[in-house]
Amino acid sequence: MRIKEKTELKIVKSKETLKDIKAHLFKAFTFFILFVATANTVKSQCAAKNIAFQPGETATYALYFNWKFIWVKAGYAELSTHEATYEDNSVYKTHLIAAGTKRTDFFFLMRDTLTNYMTKALEPIYFRKGAEEGKRYTVDEAYFSYKNGISYVNQKRTHRSGRVEEHNHESNQCIYDMLTILAQARSYDTSQYEVGDKIKFDMATGKRVEDQTVIYRGKEIIEDENKIQYDCLVFSFVEYDDKNKEKEVITFYISNDDNHLPIRLDLFLNIGSAKAFLTKIEGNKYPFSSIKKKK
């Protein structure tokens, strides 16, 4: 599938539309492989073995917005992992940045940066999200700890004015931030899932811990914007209204190989739709055996 990009951004007139794109984009990166994040009882402090990635990996994505059959490039996102030191311990540091283009900045400034530190056993330690949305700027932080089989998370939201909101939560289930669960999920075996399986998990979102749901849809051969075909696992992130009616929010296509990286994300917005494509990968641990056909 090749995206034909329009050269002018006359169609994007609403700040709410761009905010909607950004919100869905971050949900996509949060949930695209959370199919493995079942509500696990805390064992070994929610540790997992990393077999999917290595320090130095960087993945870049392009985001396109569709309005009445016209596609416009709306921004990009970059996800990277490195080795670091946190309180004298050797850890992984993951960094995700998302930004709009110069054209979209004219209508609505979007600069979000997510950073987390996790143990080499992929346990969350600290998470930070700095979000600039127009004139609004907030910093969300989450501090994780574990004791006697209980997960604890202290969350803080700091506003531009200096006002701070603080929330504490504890659970006998694992609690994740969006980047740690991303790292854990990539190392799980997905062969146990059947089409229609629903997976639920707990996620620290900055102000609260929320229950989330992902549905496994099966496998599909998809084509990216450069006409390269991939064998993919397909999942849906869904939400439910007050009447428990299911709404598809994001469909994500994950490489069916040892990398378990998203190839394409389809985002269903309140106005229009959007797609995110993997455009560049460096430092991946395994070759992309999921590639079926190149142009």
What is the chain-wise order of helices and strands? HEEEHEEEEEHEEEEEEE
Taken from the alpha-carbon principal axes, the silhouette is globular
Largest sheet: 15 strands, antiparallel
Taking the alpha carbons of the first and last residues, their distance comes to 11 Å
Number of strands: 15
Q: Which regions contain 5 or more consecutive residues with pLDDT less than 50?
A: 1-14, 32-43
Radius of gyration: 19 Å
Structural class: mainly beta
Helix run count = 3
Q: How many domain regions? A: 1
The residue-averaged pLDDT reads 80
How much helicity do the residues have? 10-25%
Question: Which strand-content bin applies to the residues?
Answer: over 45%
Write a structural description:
The chain is mainly beta and 295 residues long. 11% of the residues lie in helices and 52% in strands. The protein has 3 helices and 15 strands. The protein has a 15-stranded antiparallel β-sheet that branches. Strand 9 (198-204) and strand 10 form a beta hairpin. The longest helix is centred in the N-terminal third of the chain and has 17 residues, at 15-31. The relative contact order is 0.20.
